[in-house]
Each structure stands twice: as C-alpha cells, then as structure tokens.
Amino acid sequence: HTNQERLYQNMPAKELKDKTKIYQKFNEIVGVSQSVVASFTKFFESLPAVHLYNPLNEQIITERSELPLNKRMNVKPYFITVGRLIPIKGYDRLISALATLKKENYDFNLIIVGDGFKRLFLEDFAAKQGVSENIIFYGHADNPYPLIKNADLFICSSIQEGLSTVVTEALILGVPIVTTHCSGMNELVENDVTGMICENSEEGLYNSIKSILDHPEKFIYFRNNIEKSKSRFFLKTRMAAIESFFELLN
C-alpha cells in the first residue's frame, strides 16, 4: 500500500532473503500503484508483482457531495486538504509555503480537514507564521465530500503516499490538484493538464500554488480537462481490471 523503500533500504541482506522466501509462497503480489510495485521489485527483483488500483464508487461519492454540511463554512474561495495531522502529510511545510505567499500579498483560504496528534502544533505554527486568519482547522468530517466539491483547489503536501484515495476522490468531484511528487501521483494527475505535480518540498508547493494564483484561468482549464478524463477512476473501469486479474488466477 505504500512506497517500500523506507521499509527495505536499510534491511540486512539475510532478512531480505528470508522475506523473499515468504513472498514466494504467494500466487501473486499486488501493489496499489505502479510506483509502489516499482519500489517493491527494486528489492525483490525475482518476485513478479502487478498493480491494481483500489475501486471507488463514484456514484456514492457524488451523492454524498450533495448532502448538507454539519458545520457550515462561509469561506469562499478556498483551497482544501484532507488527511491525518501527522508528520508524513507535510502540513507544516504547506503552512510555511502559504505564509510566504501571504507576505507577498497573495489572497487565499485553506481548510484542513482531519485530526491527529500534530493538530495543536500545527495550529500554533500557523499562528506564529501569521496565517491563522487564512487557515481553518476543520477537524474530522464523516463526510468531507461537500467541502471537497466546492473547493477551488485540492492540495496534497505529503512526503509519501501509496496511491492517494482522497486525491482520486477530489478528481472524481472535478477539483484541480496541486500535489507533491510522491508515489502514485503521476498515475492520478496529468501534470499541467488536470493539476500540478511539484517537487516534494516546501519550495515546490510554494511555486505551484503561486503559479495558479498568478494564472487563475488554470482553475477552469484543469476542471475542463478533469471532466474529460475522470471516468478512468470510476468503479466499472477499476473493477474490470480486478475481475480480469482473478480470472487469470483461475
């Protein structure tokens, strides 16, 4: 489910050999993205592996995006990000990038949906960076889809992913993406077509968000392109691949 390099890169050769013997007992090894599979076969070259994308029901996502919010938001326009408030999501560097943009007189709002042990730190960090008025820590949402659907931009600042479910959901809802370059993103986002894939750093986030703010016509351009291509994320398409996989096993 995630990039395997951090797991295996410092593992002793004997332990890798033992794990190879275990993996050889399986009929098939499956990763959630091409990037995850590539990171696996880098350490287990003799083991074939395939990728299968997780199926999502676009009808349920779309229907839930039409439901009313439990907590109404009066902020518009706004960017959104959704995830656990933990270090690997990179929210501290997103806040820093936005703080730099504010100092340069750019206007924006960001809603952060999710909770986690870094919340108090991030709220304090946002205050120290002078962007508390621009960032709303929404907390956990059972149904984040109305918030995502009505956002102008979805931002993923993650240091590492496997294949981001929430980025896929945002694309299903027609929302342009800015994401760091991590596993699976180039399989979801067409760079400069349906969004922007940036260098995995604070500077990368700053440059991409600034580029869109400088060229607001990109919001419409990205949305139009998403509408033309988002059917590749639909349940029918992904289930066809999964069903074919199990037919071959039989």
What attributes does this structure have?
single chain; 250 residues; alpha/beta; six-stranded parallel beta sheet; two-stranded parallel sheet; 12 helices; 8 strands; 45% helix; globular
| Main beta-sheet strand count, sense and barrel state | 6 strands, parallel
| Principal-axis shape | globular
Roughly how many Å is the radius of gyration? Answer: 19 Å
Give the class from helix and strand content and strand pairing: alpha/beta
DSSP strand tally: 8
Give the termini distance in whole angstroms.
24 Å
Amount of helix = 40-55%
Spell out the helices and strands N to C. Answer: HHEHEHEHEHEHEHEHEHHH
Strands in their spatial order, largest beta sheet: 5-4-3-6-7-8
Low-confidence stretches: none
What oligomeric state do these chains adopt? Answer: single chain
